[in-house]
Input
Amino acid sequence: MTAREDDDWRQRRDDAVAKHAAAVARAREIETTQARKLVTEFVEEARRRLLPPERLMAFAFNGRSHYRTGLHGWYIHPNHSLAIGVDGEFYVLGVPASLRSRLLGARPAPSDPMLVIGRGAKDGESISLRELLHRRLAANTGDA
Output
């Protein structure tokens, strides 16, 4: 392979990688937009049904500690690892263990919601966000 052919091949490879990365980013953006719509609809429905929000707790990744957060909302996963805040944000409630969190509380940042929870996880367990939200609403109305 000549130097010119090698340069052409590298350029084509770099272009293909860039196009792939752009396509993945666009798909993620579309998914986030759709998931945010589901979250907004959930908050509206929870308020309509007078579903009381509760104080949300975060848990340490090591599984040994729970921390206050200052957030209020609705847990949407049975293990309380995911929640929707009254602010309409999606929260992953796992945080690093720390003395600061024990004393002052944890501050989980809002995350981009995803349409499928647990996609690609080792245990193979995944569920749609829509189903989790439906189950959470149904749990308070006896529709489950």
